[in-house]
Design a protein that fits this description.
single chain, BirA Bifunctional Protein, domain 2, seven-stranded mixed beta sheet, 12 helices, 9 strands, rod-shaped, binds phenylalanine
Amino acid sequence: MSAPNKSYDPVEVTALRPEELDRARDDAIAAIAAASGLAELKEARIAHAGDRSPLALANREIGALPPAARAEAGKRIGAARGAVSQALKQRQAELEEERDQRVLVEEAVDVTLPWDRTPRGARHPLTTIQERMADVFVSMGFEVAEGPEVEAEWFNFDALNFKPDHPARTMQDTFFVESEDTGLVLRTHTSPVQVRSLLTRPLPVYVVAPGRTFRTDELDATHSPVFHQLEGLAIDEGLTMADLRGAIDAFVTGMFGAGLAVRMRPSYFPFTEPSAEVDMQCFVCRGASVERGAPPCRTCGSEGWIELGGCGMVNPRVLVAAGVDAERYSGWAFGLGVERTLMFRHGVEDMHDMVEGDVRFALPFGMEI
Ligand code: PHE
């Protein structure tokens, strides 16, 4: 700010010239009138009535005038600022009124409209994918078989050639039904349906058995004490491991598309001999992520392979336990993980999502999967 100066010519303080003040006022009023919304008006207020506006800056210069000229200049500035603030007030009122009218129209709720108060449910994607997995085999002529979830130990273990001291029988893995002498367990796999099917159906037997299974696992991202398997069983004359392999190939093609390799790794199950774990090539990276320098694959963890389950040639002891002539008939069986298939095929990363039963998880999957 300039210091008071008796010999100062007020005409030299440019900001205080009447025509400058008039122009600043007119600019302000024009900007205020042009503001088409409250946000724009706020900007106009800052620019033309704020601390750094031309009129505010001119006001500061008053002190630089000779005392005789100050009153006149002060009056002129006061009049200009008054006009600006009057215009602001008026435009503010107009714009608020406009906004209120608009909100009333835009946000109107017709409380008389009928509303469906029953929230929509959804099929669980595990159910849908389990049906789809079974359908691949139904299309090849398999029938769908079922068995009880509370199962006799004999079907779950003995008939499947588990010796009495097999570790899977211990409390660690199996839920036993009280009291112990009931001989009942929550089935630990769908394989008991193999024996039930052989006992109740005429040969040859081609069945798949989707269903719920139970093991004493803690719930975490990849385990659940309740899970699902798809069992497959084919018993006929002259079946070989090549037929098993072909059926798994057809499953992989049916679920994940053509051209994916299947591999079998030697394994052990009491009820199959020989036994294998079966993997499919990762349908996302198609095995490419194992190459050095290749981008990592989230689906297979850059393994290139996805584990599907266990399989093998049905142990003749199982056939004998089910009253089948093991000299004449042979066949194979498999057990595929349903949760695993959903996780891989649909990128579900956490088992919790599958078991919590929140309809918001299930709805987006729709009726077809
Ligand atoms: N029942 C086995 C499991 O739960 C899987 C399996 C089924 C293996 C049929 C071989 C044949 O791990």
